[in-house]
Predict the 3D structure of the following.
Amino acid sequence: MTITSGKAPTTPEAPSTPHFDRSAARKAVWAALVGSSLESFDFYVFAYFSAIFAPALFFPELDPAAGLLGSFAVIAVAFIVRPIGAVIFGNLGDRIGRKRTLLITITIMGVATGLIGLLPDFSTIGVAAPLLLLLLRVVQGLSLGGEWGGGILIAVEHAEPKRRGLYAALPQLGSPVGTILTGALLLLLPSIIGADEMLGWGWRIPFLLAFPLLAVSLYLRLAIDETPVFTSLVAEKKRERIPVLAAFRRYPVAILVAVGAAMLGIGSYSLMNTYTIGYGISVLGFSYPDLALATLIGSLLQLVTIPLFGVLADRIGSARVVVIGAIGTLIIAFPMYFLLQFATFDVLVATMIIGGILPTLAWAGLGGLMANIFGGPVRYSALSIAYAVAAALSGIIPFATQGLSIATEGAWWHPGVVLAAISLITLVCAVIASRWTRAVDEDPILT
Protein backbone atom coordinates (compact mmCIF):
# COMPACT_ATOMS: atom_id res chain seq x y z
CA MET A 1 0.00 0.00 0.00
CA THR A 2 1.38 3.41 -0.97
CA ILE A 3 1.31 6.14 1.66
CA THR A 4 1.32 9.67 0.31
CA SER A 5 1.20 13.24 1.48
CA GLY A 6 -2.06 13.79 -0.35
CA LYS A 7 -0.57 15.57 -3.36
CA ALA A 8 -0.38 12.43 -5.47
CA PRO A 9 1.17 9.00 -5.10
CA THR A 10 4.61 8.73 -6.66
CA THR A 11 4.86 4.93 -6.68
CA PRO A 12 1.61 3.54 -8.06
CA GLU A 13 0.40 0.11 -7.14
CA ALA A 14 0.70 -2.57 -9.75
CA PRO A 15 -2.43 -2.31 -11.86
CA SER A 16 -4.92 -5.11 -11.77
CA THR A 17 -6.47 -6.32 -15.00
CA PRO A 18 -10.23 -6.58 -14.48
CA HIS A 19 -12.38 -7.79 -17.34
CA PHE A 20 -14.80 -5.20 -18.72
CA ASP A 21 -18.04 -6.43 -20.28
CA ARG A 22 -19.88 -3.94 -22.51
CA SER A 23 -23.31 -5.40 -21.81
CA ALA A 24 -22.72 -5.27 -18.06
CA ALA A 25 -21.42 -1.72 -18.44
CA ARG A 26 -24.60 -0.60 -20.21
CA LYS A 27 -26.78 -2.18 -17.51
CA ALA A 28 -24.69 -0.50 -14.85
CA VAL A 29 -25.10 2.90 -16.52
CA TRP A 30 -28.88 2.47 -16.64
CA ALA A 31 -28.96 1.48 -12.98
CA ALA A 32 -26.82 4.50 -12.07
CA LEU A 33 -28.91 6.82 -14.23
CA VAL A 34 -32.26 5.75 -12.77
CA GLY A 35 -30.87 6.06 -9.26
CA SER A 36 -29.44 9.51 -9.93
CA SER A 37 -32.77 10.51 -11.50
CA LEU A 38 -34.59 9.51 -8.33
CA GLU A 39 -32.02 11.43 -6.28
CA SER A 40 -32.49 14.54 -8.43
CA PHE A 41 -36.26 14.15 -8.50
CA ASP A 42 -36.29 14.06 -4.71
CA PHE A 43 -34.09 17.15 -4.54
CA TYR A 44 -36.01 19.24 -7.06
CA VAL A 45 -39.42 18.26 -5.77
CA PHE A 46 -38.36 19.49 -2.36
CA ALA A 47 -36.73 22.59 -3.85
CA TYR A 48 -39.94 23.62 -5.62
CA PHE A 49 -41.97 22.59 -2.59
CA SER A 50 -39.78 24.73 -0.31
CA ALA A 51 -40.03 27.78 -2.56
CA ILE A 52 -43.75 27.54 -3.32
CA PHE A 53 -45.69 25.51 -0.74
CA ALA A 54 -43.65 24.96 2.43
CA PRO A 55 -43.87 28.52 3.81
CA ALA A 56 -47.67 28.42 3.87
CA LEU A 57 -48.02 24.76 4.90
CA PHE A 58 -45.25 24.33 7.47
CA PHE A 59 -44.26 27.88 8.48
CA PRO A 60 -47.57 29.79 8.36
CA GLU A 61 -46.89 31.88 11.47
CA LEU A 62 -43.88 33.55 9.84
CA ASP A 63 -44.02 36.44 7.37
CA PRO A 64 -43.41 35.40 3.72
CA ALA A 65 -39.72 36.35 3.63
CA ALA A 66 -38.98 34.59 6.92
CA GLY A 67 -41.05 31.58 5.86
CA LEU A 68 -39.02 31.28 2.66
CA LEU A 69 -35.84 31.58 4.72
CA GLY A 70 -37.09 28.79 7.01
CA SER A 71 -37.83 26.57 4.01
CA PHE A 72 -34.34 27.12 2.60
CA ALA A 73 -32.90 26.32 6.03
CA VAL A 74 -34.63 22.91 5.95
CA ILE A 75 -33.02 22.29 2.56
CA ALA A 76 -29.63 23.28 3.99
CA VAL A 77 -29.94 20.84 6.91
CA ALA A 78 -30.16 17.86 4.54
CA PHE A 79 -26.97 18.97 2.83
CA ILE A 80 -25.17 19.57 6.12
CA VAL A 81 -25.69 15.96 7.26
CA ARG A 82 -24.59 14.51 3.91
CA PRO A 83 -20.91 14.25 4.94
CA ILE A 84 -21.98 11.98 7.79
CA GLY A 85 -23.81 9.77 5.30
CA ALA A 86 -20.75 9.89 3.03
CA VAL A 87 -18.54 8.58 5.82
CA ILE A 88 -20.98 5.78 6.65
CA PHE A 89 -21.89 4.64 3.16
CA GLY A 90 -18.55 5.47 1.53
CA ASN A 91 -16.87 3.20 4.04
CA LEU A 92 -19.45 0.49 3.32
CA GLY A 93 -18.97 0.87 -0.42
CA ASP A 94 -15.24 0.23 -0.14
CA ARG A 95 -15.79 -2.73 2.21
CA ILE A 96 -18.93 -4.62 1.09
CA GLY A 97 -19.14 -3.39 -2.50
CA ARG A 98 -20.65 -0.71 -4.70
CA LYS A 99 -23.81 -2.65 -5.59
CA ARG A 100 -24.86 -3.68 -2.09
CA THR A 101 -24.28 -0.19 -0.70
CA LEU A 102 -26.29 1.44 -3.49
CA LEU A 103 -29.24 -0.86 -2.75
CA ILE A 104 -29.22 0.41 0.83
CA THR A 105 -28.91 4.11 -0.01
CA ILE A 106 -31.60 4.15 -2.71
CA THR A 107 -34.07 2.36 -0.40
CA ILE A 108 -33.57 4.82 2.46
CA MET A 109 -33.81 7.81 0.13
CA GLY A 110 -36.93 6.64 -1.70
CA VAL A 111 -38.82 5.75 1.49
CA ALA A 112 -37.94 9.05 3.19
CA THR A 113 -39.08 11.05 0.16
CA GLY A 114 -42.36 9.16 -0.11
CA LEU A 115 -43.08 9.71 3.58
CA ILE A 116 -42.82 13.48 3.13
CA GLY A 117 -45.89 13.16 0.89
CA LEU A 118 -47.78 11.63 3.83
CA LEU A 119 -46.89 14.32 6.40
CA PRO A 120 -49.66 16.34 8.09
CA ASP A 121 -49.18 20.10 7.80
CA PHE A 122 -48.92 22.78 10.51
CA SER A 123 -52.69 23.32 10.66
CA THR A 124 -53.15 19.65 11.58
CA ILE A 125 -50.41 18.86 14.10
CA GLY A 126 -48.81 22.23 14.80
CA VAL A 127 -45.08 22.53 15.39
CA ALA A 128 -44.64 18.77 15.03
CA ALA A 129 -45.15 19.18 11.27
CA PRO A 130 -41.96 21.15 10.53
CA LEU A 131 -40.05 18.97 13.00
CA LEU A 132 -41.08 15.79 11.17
CA LEU A 133 -40.27 17.45 7.87
CA LEU A 134 -36.83 18.27 9.23
CA LEU A 135 -36.33 14.68 10.44
CA LEU A 136 -37.15 13.20 7.03
CA ARG A 137 -34.81 15.68 5.35
CA VAL A 138 -32.04 14.53 7.68
CA VAL A 139 -32.69 10.91 6.69
CA GLN A 140 -32.65 11.92 3.02
CA GLY A 141 -29.38 13.76 3.53
CA LEU A 142 -27.71 10.78 5.15
CA SER A 143 -28.67 8.43 2.32
CA LEU A 144 -27.72 10.95 -0.35
CA GLY A 145 -24.24 11.06 1.17
CA GLY A 146 -23.50 7.64 -0.31
CA GLU A 147 -25.69 7.68 -3.41
CA TRP A 148 -23.86 9.91 -5.90
CA GLY A 149 -20.38 8.45 -5.44
CA GLY A 150 -21.65 4.89 -5.73
CA GLY A 151 -23.68 5.71 -8.83
CA ILE A 152 -20.64 7.20 -10.56
CA LEU A 153 -18.45 4.24 -9.61
CA ILE A 154 -20.94 1.58 -10.67
CA ALA A 155 -20.82 3.14 -14.14
CA VAL A 156 -17.13 4.11 -14.36
CA GLU A 157 -15.71 0.90 -12.92
CA HIS A 158 -17.73 -1.19 -15.37
CA ALA A 159 -16.55 0.82 -18.39
CA GLU A 160 -13.62 0.36 -20.73
CA PRO A 161 -10.82 2.88 -20.06
CA LYS A 162 -11.39 4.75 -23.31
CA ARG A 163 -15.09 5.32 -22.53
CA ARG A 164 -14.87 6.37 -18.89
CA GLY A 165 -15.35 10.08 -19.51
CA LEU A 166 -18.68 9.35 -21.20
CA TYR A 167 -19.75 6.73 -18.67
CA ALA A 168 -18.97 9.11 -15.81
CA ALA A 169 -21.09 11.79 -17.49
CA LEU A 170 -24.15 9.65 -18.26
CA PRO A 171 -25.31 9.23 -14.63
CA GLN A 172 -25.27 13.04 -14.47
CA LEU A 173 -28.26 12.94 -16.82
CA GLY A 174 -30.23 12.13 -13.69
CA SER A 175 -30.20 15.81 -12.78
CA PRO A 176 -32.07 17.05 -15.89
CA VAL A 177 -34.30 13.96 -15.82
CA GLY A 178 -35.27 14.76 -12.23
CA THR A 179 -35.84 18.39 -13.17
CA ILE A 180 -37.96 17.43 -16.18
CA LEU A 181 -40.15 15.09 -14.13
CA THR A 182 -40.59 17.74 -11.44
CA GLY A 183 -41.23 20.58 -13.88
CA ALA A 184 -43.71 18.53 -15.89
CA LEU A 185 -45.63 17.63 -12.76
CA LEU A 186 -45.76 21.22 -11.56
CA LEU A 187 -47.01 22.32 -14.96
CA LEU A 188 -49.63 19.60 -15.34
CA LEU A 189 -50.98 19.21 -11.83
CA PRO A 190 -52.32 22.78 -11.36
CA SER A 191 -54.09 22.60 -14.71
CA ILE A 192 -55.66 19.28 -13.79
CA ILE A 193 -56.62 19.79 -10.15
CA GLY A 194 -56.40 23.58 -9.70
CA ALA A 195 -54.22 25.88 -7.59
CA ASP A 196 -56.28 25.53 -4.41
CA GLU A 197 -56.09 21.74 -4.54
CA MET A 198 -52.35 21.95 -5.13
CA LEU A 199 -51.94 23.78 -1.85
CA GLY A 200 -54.44 21.51 -0.13
CA TRP A 201 -53.24 18.05 -1.20
CA GLY A 202 -51.81 18.11 -4.74
CA TRP A 203 -48.30 18.96 -3.50
CA ARG A 204 -48.15 15.44 -2.05
CA ILE A 205 -48.34 13.68 -5.42
CA PRO A 206 -44.73 14.31 -6.55
CA PHE A 207 -43.40 13.01 -3.23
CA LEU A 208 -45.56 9.88 -3.36
CA LEU A 209 -44.22 9.11 -6.84
CA ALA A 210 -40.91 8.34 -5.14
CA PHE A 211 -42.33 4.92 -4.18
CA PRO A 212 -42.80 3.56 -7.74
CA LEU A 213 -39.53 5.19 -8.83
CA LEU A 214 -37.83 3.38 -5.96
CA ALA A 215 -39.25 0.06 -7.16
CA VAL A 216 -37.79 0.62 -10.64
CA SER A 217 -34.43 1.61 -9.20
CA LEU A 218 -34.25 -1.49 -7.03
CA TYR A 219 -35.18 -3.74 -9.95
CA LEU A 220 -32.37 -2.34 -12.10
CA ARG A 221 -29.76 -2.39 -9.36
CA LEU A 222 -30.52 -5.95 -8.34
CA ALA A 223 -29.87 -7.02 -11.93
CA ILE A 224 -26.32 -5.63 -12.20
CA ASP A 225 -23.05 -7.24 -11.20
CA GLU A 226 -20.48 -5.88 -8.80
CA THR A 227 -17.88 -3.75 -10.60
CA PRO A 228 -14.80 -5.50 -12.03
CA VAL A 229 -12.55 -3.06 -10.19
CA PHE A 230 -14.03 -3.88 -6.78
CA THR A 231 -14.07 -7.61 -7.59
CA SER A 232 -10.34 -7.38 -8.35
CA LEU A 233 -9.70 -5.52 -5.10
CA VAL A 234 -11.38 -8.33 -3.17
CA ALA A 235 -9.55 -11.06 -5.09
CA GLU A 236 -6.17 -9.39 -4.56
CA LYS A 237 -6.96 -8.57 -0.91
CA LYS A 238 -6.40 -4.84 -1.43
CA ARG A 239 -9.37 -3.58 0.56
CA GLU A 240 -8.60 -1.23 3.44
CA ARG A 241 -9.78 -2.20 6.91
CA ILE A 242 -11.23 1.29 7.49
CA PRO A 243 -11.37 2.88 4.02
CA VAL A 244 -12.60 6.27 5.15
CA LEU A 245 -9.57 6.78 7.40
CA ALA A 246 -7.26 5.56 4.65
CA ALA A 247 -8.83 8.06 2.26
CA PHE A 248 -8.01 10.99 4.55
CA ARG A 249 -4.54 9.63 5.22
CA ARG A 250 -3.63 9.04 1.57
CA TYR A 251 -5.48 11.85 -0.22
CA PRO A 252 -6.01 14.90 2.04
CA VAL A 253 -5.08 17.43 -0.64
CA ALA A 254 -6.90 15.56 -3.40
CA ILE A 255 -10.11 15.54 -1.32
CA LEU A 256 -9.92 19.32 -0.91
CA VAL A 257 -9.32 19.74 -4.64
CA ALA A 258 -12.31 17.50 -5.42
CA VAL A 259 -14.53 19.52 -3.08
CA GLY A 260 -13.63 22.75 -4.85
CA ALA A 261 -13.98 21.21 -8.30
CA ALA A 262 -17.52 20.11 -7.42
CA MET A 263 -18.74 23.49 -6.19
CA LEU A 264 -19.96 24.85 -9.52
CA GLY A 265 -21.60 21.66 -10.76
CA ILE A 266 -23.60 21.26 -7.54
CA GLY A 267 -23.83 24.86 -6.38
CA SER A 268 -25.19 26.23 -9.65
CA TYR A 269 -28.24 23.96 -9.31
CA SER A 270 -28.79 25.08 -5.73
CA LEU A 271 -28.58 28.69 -6.86
CA MET A 272 -30.52 28.55 -10.13
CA ASN A 273 -33.09 25.86 -9.39
CA THR A 274 -33.75 26.58 -5.74
CA TYR A 275 -32.95 30.19 -4.90
CA THR A 276 -33.84 31.61 -8.31
CA ILE A 277 -37.25 29.90 -8.16
CA GLY A 278 -38.16 31.66 -4.92
CA TYR A 279 -36.48 34.89 -6.06
CA GLY A 280 -38.31 34.79 -9.38
CA ILE A 281 -41.68 34.43 -7.67
CA SER A 282 -41.30 36.76 -4.68
CA VAL A 283 -39.17 39.54 -6.23
CA LEU A 284 -39.37 39.42 -10.03
CA GLY A 285 -43.03 38.49 -10.18
CA PHE A 286 -42.83 35.36 -12.35
CA SER A 287 -45.51 32.71 -11.92
CA TYR A 288 -44.27 29.30 -10.89
CA PRO A 289 -45.68 27.67 -14.07
CA ASP A 290 -43.45 30.04 -16.10
CA LEU A 291 -40.47 29.18 -13.94
CA ALA A 292 -41.21 25.46 -14.18
CA LEU A 293 -41.55 25.68 -17.98
CA ALA A 294 -38.29 27.62 -18.38
CA THR A 295 -36.47 25.12 -16.18
CA LEU A 296 -38.01 22.28 -18.17
CA ILE A 297 -36.73 23.73 -21.46
CA GLY A 298 -33.23 24.11 -20.06
CA SER A 299 -33.27 20.56 -18.72
CA LEU A 300 -34.40 19.08 -22.04
CA LEU A 301 -31.38 20.68 -23.65
CA GLN A 302 -29.13 19.05 -21.04
CA LEU A 303 -30.29 15.62 -22.22
CA VAL A 304 -28.28 16.37 -25.36
CA THR A 305 -25.39 18.38 -23.96
CA ILE A 306 -24.37 16.08 -21.10
CA PRO A 307 -23.62 13.06 -23.35
CA LEU A 308 -21.80 15.37 -25.78
CA PHE A 309 -19.71 16.77 -22.95
CA GLY A 310 -19.02 13.17 -21.86
CA VAL A 311 -17.65 12.40 -25.34
CA LEU A 312 -15.57 15.57 -25.09
CA ALA A 313 -14.23 14.34 -21.74
CA ASP A 314 -13.03 11.13 -23.42
CA ARG A 315 -11.08 13.30 -25.89
CA ILE A 316 -9.57 16.03 -23.72
CA GLY A 317 -10.06 14.78 -20.17
CA SER A 318 -12.83 15.32 -17.64
CA ALA A 319 -10.92 17.95 -15.65
CA ARG A 320 -10.45 20.13 -18.74
CA VAL A 321 -14.18 19.96 -19.46
CA VAL A 322 -14.80 21.27 -15.93
CA VAL A 323 -12.27 24.07 -16.52
CA ILE A 324 -14.09 25.21 -19.67
CA GLY A 325 -17.42 25.24 -17.84
CA ALA A 326 -16.01 27.25 -14.95
CA ILE A 327 -14.49 29.89 -17.24
CA GLY A 328 -17.70 30.24 -19.26
CA THR A 329 -19.91 30.53 -16.17
CA LEU A 330 -17.61 33.13 -14.63
CA ILE A 331 -17.99 35.26 -17.76
CA ILE A 332 -21.80 35.16 -17.89
CA ALA A 333 -22.60 35.29 -14.15
CA PHE A 334 -23.39 39.02 -13.88
CA PRO A 335 -24.84 39.63 -17.37
CA MET A 336 -27.26 36.76 -16.86
CA TYR A 337 -28.73 38.14 -13.64
CA PHE A 338 -28.80 41.66 -15.03
CA LEU A 339 -30.96 40.56 -17.96
CA LEU A 340 -33.22 38.58 -15.65
CA GLN A 341 -34.37 41.87 -14.09
CA PHE A 342 -36.39 42.61 -17.23
CA ALA A 343 -38.70 39.82 -16.07
CA THR A 344 -39.91 38.63 -19.46
CA PHE A 345 -40.49 34.98 -20.21
CA ASP A 346 -38.08 35.04 -23.17
CA VAL A 347 -35.30 36.37 -20.96
CA LEU A 348 -36.13 33.76 -18.34
CA VAL A 349 -35.84 30.92 -20.87
CA ALA A 350 -32.58 32.33 -22.25
CA THR A 351 -31.21 32.54 -18.71
CA MET A 352 -32.08 28.92 -17.99
CA ILE A 353 -30.49 27.78 -21.27
CA ILE A 354 -27.27 29.82 -21.18
CA GLY A 355 -26.93 29.60 -17.42
CA GLY A 356 -27.56 25.88 -17.68
CA ILE A 357 -25.22 24.86 -20.50
CA LEU A 358 -22.02 26.34 -19.09
CA PRO A 359 -22.32 24.97 -15.54
CA THR A 360 -23.41 21.68 -17.16
CA LEU A 361 -19.89 21.34 -18.55
CA ALA A 362 -18.63 21.33 -14.98
CA TRP A 363 -21.38 18.90 -13.96
CA ALA A 364 -20.76 16.48 -16.84
CA GLY A 365 -17.02 16.31 -16.20
CA LEU A 366 -17.26 16.10 -12.42
CA GLY A 367 -17.62 12.32 -12.01
CA GLY A 368 -14.70 11.56 -14.29
CA LEU A 369 -12.53 14.20 -12.62
CA MET A 370 -13.16 12.72 -9.18
CA ALA A 371 -12.74 9.09 -10.24
CA ASN A 372 -9.42 10.03 -11.82
CA ILE A 373 -7.76 11.33 -8.65
CA PHE A 374 -8.51 8.58 -6.12
CA GLY A 375 -7.26 5.00 -5.89
CA GLY A 376 -9.66 2.04 -6.03
CA PRO A 377 -9.44 0.78 -2.41
CA VAL A 378 -10.76 4.10 -1.04
CA ARG A 379 -12.46 5.56 -4.09
CA TYR A 380 -16.06 5.21 -2.84
CA SER A 381 -15.16 6.88 0.47
CA ALA A 382 -13.11 9.67 -1.10
CA LEU A 383 -15.65 10.47 -3.84
CA SER A 384 -18.57 10.41 -1.43
CA ILE A 385 -16.88 12.60 1.17
CA ALA A 386 -15.68 15.18 -1.35
CA TYR A 387 -19.06 15.36 -3.07
CA ALA A 388 -20.96 15.48 0.20
CA VAL A 389 -18.85 18.31 1.60
CA ALA A 390 -19.35 20.26 -1.64
CA ALA A 391 -23.07 19.50 -1.48
CA ALA A 392 -23.22 20.63 2.15
CA LEU A 393 -21.61 23.93 1.22
CA SER A 394 -23.89 24.23 -1.80
CA GLY A 395 -26.96 23.51 0.30
CA ILE A 396 -26.29 26.71 2.21
CA ILE A 397 -26.25 28.73 -1.02
CA PRO A 398 -30.01 29.50 -1.21
CA PHE A 399 -30.02 30.53 2.47
CA ALA A 400 -26.86 32.63 2.10
CA THR A 401 -28.03 34.24 -1.14
CA GLN A 402 -31.31 35.19 0.48
CA GLY A 403 -29.34 36.76 3.31
CA LEU A 404 -27.20 38.64 0.80
CA SER A 405 -30.36 39.85 -0.92
CA ILE A 406 -31.64 41.25 2.38
CA ALA A 407 -28.27 42.88 3.12
CA THR A 408 -28.08 44.53 -0.34
CA GLU A 409 -31.79 45.43 -0.41
CA GLY A 410 -32.36 43.13 -3.37
CA ALA A 411 -29.58 44.51 -5.62
CA TRP A 412 -29.81 42.79 -9.01
CA TRP A 413 -26.19 41.60 -8.86
CA HIS A 414 -26.36 39.72 -5.58
CA PRO A 415 -26.91 36.22 -7.14
CA GLY A 416 -24.14 36.95 -9.66
CA VAL A 417 -21.66 37.40 -6.81
CA VAL A 418 -22.44 33.90 -5.57
CA LEU A 419 -22.29 32.29 -9.03
CA ALA A 420 -19.00 34.02 -9.87
CA ALA A 421 -17.46 32.96 -6.56
CA ILE A 422 -18.24 29.26 -6.94
CA SER A 423 -17.10 29.38 -10.59
CA LEU A 424 -13.73 30.77 -9.54
CA ILE A 425 -13.27 28.12 -6.85
CA THR A 426 -14.06 25.34 -9.32
CA LEU A 427 -11.76 26.82 -11.95
CA VAL A 428 -8.74 26.83 -9.66
CA CYS A 429 -9.37 23.30 -8.36
CA ALA A 430 -10.11 21.81 -11.79
CA VAL A 431 -6.85 23.24 -13.14
CA ILE A 432 -5.02 21.48 -10.30
CA ALA A 433 -6.91 18.22 -10.92
CA SER A 434 -6.09 18.33 -14.63
CA ARG A 435 -2.44 17.66 -13.71
CA TRP A 436 -3.32 14.27 -12.18
CA THR A 437 -3.91 11.30 -14.45
CA ARG A 438 -4.12 7.52 -14.10
CA ALA A 439 -6.11 4.46 -15.09
CA VAL A 440 -9.24 4.02 -12.99
CA ASP A 441 -7.89 0.90 -11.24
CA GLU A 442 -4.50 2.40 -10.37
CA ASP A 443 -3.29 5.07 -7.98
CA PRO A 444 -2.89 8.57 -9.48
CA ILE A 445 0.51 9.84 -10.58
CA LEU A 446 1.57 13.45 -10.92
CA THR A 447 2.36 14.50 -14.50
Remarks:
- The two ends are 21 Å apart (CA to CA).
- Confidence is low (pLDDT under 50) at residues 1-16, 443-447.
